[in-house]
Amino acid sequence: MAKVLGTSPQKLGRQMIQVFVGDDKQPHCVHRDLISASSDFFKNALHGKFKERDGIIRLLEENSDDFAVYVAWLYSGRLNYPPKVENSDDNNDEYGSALGSHYQKLLELHIMGDIIQDEDFQNTTTDTIIELASSSQRPPLHESFTRSAMSYLPLTSSLRKYLVDCWVYVRNPCWYEDGSVTLGEYPAEFWIEVAKGLTNQTKKPTPGAYPWELNPCLYHSHKKEAQKPKLA
Asked: Which Pfam families does the entry link to (predicted)?
């Protein structure tokens, strides 16, 4: 959870920095000590031997709206996202679409947290994703979320682990039978992690209790039996 530092000069410091995000012409202005205490990226940039120590930093690849959410979190200790979306039987598709957008935005915020090396902010976004999954009873299992998480987050990412665990523990065979999941749309390394999780989570039978030992018929071909005419 974020450290709420309050507004006292002793905690915020007196120096301000300017952060230009994306193609912004106007900077985000943040207290130097506040952001340095939370983000290792800013701490190193502002206190190292780089030109950024003069107090002007550019994040050309990031989203300005996302950074504004981050700055608000720095000062308040609260993540003001996502807005509440009502769920009802009448707007099931609309709710699902809005929920997917919220998950995607939270993932963007989490990835930005990884880039600026702010562990507290990343933990906050992870907690928000988990809370949203619990309240909606719809964990983030869709392909676009999975592909982005696997592409932009490191192997050691705790959010990647959460995503894999969702598939391991919330698993449902119907996902693969009703067309909800197209295997080729998900990264191969993701399925490897899911398989490892299932292996660790599933109780391993002892020799003599393997399904092929208990019932070899499970592995027989039964095409001829299916083609036999039924007796009147």
From this structure: BTB (PF00651)
